[in-house]
């Protein structure tokens, strides 16, 4: 059974963690949750309120990480999932996060990212010459990283599948499952 690495941290968007986590398990993948340390992570829920210029943040669910990023050998994983939320603000500064994520792009493995995860990818140079979705407020980060922002629910660029936010889950995960079935299928 192929193993998928899902990287999260405190303040990861609740829905952007649980939807892909459960969908991948349902499909038959073994999913490992990596974070800066082994601990119980606390997620947040971002929601939209009428007449409010941005989103609001509320406390979400908790979930334990399986492994610290420093312990991850990315060669052991077939694919990577990067949810958004506020966690990307500090994950992008983690040396092991950068090491792990860069491996997946360098090895041309499937990667799914959504929302604010793009702000972790732009500084790594892995968005250069790629088309990608992200939360629209992250479009300048995508451009600074050399990528082209696409305002769509599921953008496929090779083995990379991206989306804007949790509202795009059905299209995003449907597209990612197609990539996984071709490049990292569950056998049996």
From TrEMBL:
CDD domains: GATase1_PfpI_1 (cd03169). It comes from the Bacteria. The keyword Protease applies. The keyword RNA-binding does not apply. Keywords: Hydrolase, Protease. GO terms for biological process: proteolysis. Residues 3-178 form the DJ-1/PfpI domain. Gene3D superfamilies: 3.40.50.880. SUPFAM superfamilies: Class I glutamine amidotransferase-like. GO terms for molecular function: peptidase activity. Belongs to the peptidase C56 family. This is Protease. It comes from Streptomyces nigrescens.
């Amino acid at each position: 059974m192929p193993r998928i690495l899902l990287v999260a941290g405190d303040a990861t968007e609740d829905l952007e963690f649980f939807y892909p986590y459960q969908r991948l398990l349902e499909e038959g993948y073994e999913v490992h949750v990596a974070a800066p340390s082994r601990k119980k992570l606390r997620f947040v829920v971002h929601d939209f309120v009428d007449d409010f210029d941005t989103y609001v943040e509320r406390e979400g669910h908790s979930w334990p990480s399986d492994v610290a990023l420093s312990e991850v050998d990315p060669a052991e994983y077939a694919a990577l999932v990067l949810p958004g939320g506020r966690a990307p603000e500090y994950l992008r500064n983690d040396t092991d996060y950068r090491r792990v994520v860069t491996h997946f792009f360098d090895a041309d493995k499937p990667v799914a990212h959504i929302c604010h995860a793009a702000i972790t990818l732009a500084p790594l140079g892995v968005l250069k010459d790629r088309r990608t979705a992200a939360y629209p407020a992250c479009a300048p980060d995508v451009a600074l990283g050399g990528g082209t922002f696409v305002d769509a629910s599921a953008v496929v660029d090779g083995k990379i599948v991206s989306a804007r936010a949790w509202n795009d889950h059905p299209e995003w995960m449907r597209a990612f499952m197609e990539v996984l079935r071709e490049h990292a299928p569950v056998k049996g």
